[in-house]
Amino acid sequence: MLSLWRRHTWSALILMSLLSSGAAWAAKPVVYVAEHGSGNSEALWLEVRSNGKAALVLPEGRSSGVVSTVGSFQVVTLDTPVSEEIEGPPDRCNGDPTQVRRDLLQVGVRLRSGTGNRGLSAISRTGTETILTGCDAGLVSHWGDFSGTAGVNTVHRSYAAMPPTTDLVAGAQLAGMSGADGSVVGFGLPADVATVGAGVLTFEQSGAVPYTVTPDGWFLLSLPGGQQRAYLRLTGAVMHGVENWMAADVVSGVLTAVSPALMIKPVAGTAWGSGNANARMWESSLFTLSNTPFFVHLYRDGTGERISRDLIAGTESRAPISAWYLSGGALVTERMTGSYVRRRLWQPLAANGKAMGVMESETVHAPDGTSFVAIAPRINAYVDLGKAVKPPVQVRRTVAQGLASSSRSRSSLSR
After folding, report:
1. Cα separation, 267 vs 276, whole angstroms
2. How far apart are CA 124 and CA 372, in angstroms?
């Protein structure tokens, strides 16, 4: 059994104290992933032990700390800060970029609904930023909080409440895992469609990958390059047929980093409508529950628009789609960024009510004929909101879009 998945016995006193306070801890390890629709990639594996200490695995790696209560949050103060250096604001003396060290000091969870074993929750973080260069070198500021509404919305399950995987028998298919080498953290790992076999998952793009299922329900893959990767189901099909899973990097049987993973069961024969049947208003399910929903309007003349809304600011930004069409079964949209063409594919997987589950990817094509992947294949679902009618007068505020995603926050998904 994987060592970080070992189960620990709690003292009755500590367990009763946490449960009576409404805490989101449970007597077995608890797994948290960003709720589908939140537009985020937060994840946490957490085990609180009887001595008041906790073991945890974050997207940044493994850690440990001391447990306390702050308001409605159960908080782990890390034994060692998780640090990264980032580019800070321009120096106030000469305008040059500054370097900032960002330290993560605490991770907290609060229960939104359900129980400590199963339900909806939120993860919040706090820490400090220290300016390293320029006139204000040494200046420290604090970020994050544990207020009653803080945090990224998550789904959680304890090891005692995981859903079954008995439906994933030989011959079943699941879209969303990856058989390629690489880390689950970040946005570069390509999702794929896998067919379940006896001890083997056969991926459409990367071929056969051996796997086992642990007693706790993890699908443990042995990748071609010698790496291990694991997947754990937290929910069956929920919003628009999408399942919430956790993905983890594994080294020598130990979880080393975690991330959310979305899955869909493909349905044979799923296809887009023909021609203008697809000229509709489509909402991306990745951001449905966020304050920044995202929409794609496809018009009957073969053009369209990308629409981003900020519900807090009450603003809307629009950017044109120069063309959309069907190709090889996929619905393709094209838009320009300067002299570069960004080509996005929606490969249909399964229709669920008014939603079309897709394998979504995007490639940027340069004038010299070269190209690079801007969005690696990922699971999404686009919800049909009705017929898209092109406004007679287009008044757009075009969203500035860089060619690379380096400016995007670690945990926010690309639109």
Report:
1. 23
2. 34
Q: How far is CA 27 from CA 34, 134, 136, 257, 371, in A?
A: 22, 48, 46, 22, 50
pLDDT at 210 over 50: yes
Residue pLDDT, tens place only, 175-185: 999 999 999 99
Q: Write the CA distances from 205 to 49, 150, 208, integer angstroms.
A: 41, 40, 9
User: Measured between alpha carbons, how far is 75 from 66 in angstroms, rounded to an integer?
Assistant: 8
Residue whose tokens read 């299922």: 213
pLDDT of 227 > 70? The answer is yes
Contacts of 23 (CB under 8 A, 6+ apart): 69, 74, 111, 116
- Block residue for tokens 């801007």: 374
Q: What is the pLDDT of residues 389-412, one digit of tens each?
A: 998 865 544 444 444 433 344 567
The single-letter DSSP state of residue 26 is -
The alpha carbon of 299 is separated from its chain's Cα centroid by a whole number of angstroms, namely 30
Beta strands in 182-267 (DSSP E): 193-196, 200-203, 207-213, 219-222, 228-233, 243-251, 254-263
Residue 71's pLDDT is what?
Answer: 94
In 3D space, the residue among 293, 291, 322, 285 whose CA is nearest the CA of residue 396 turns out to be 322
Three-class DSSP category at 286: helix
Sign of CA dihedral 182, 186, 192, 198: positive
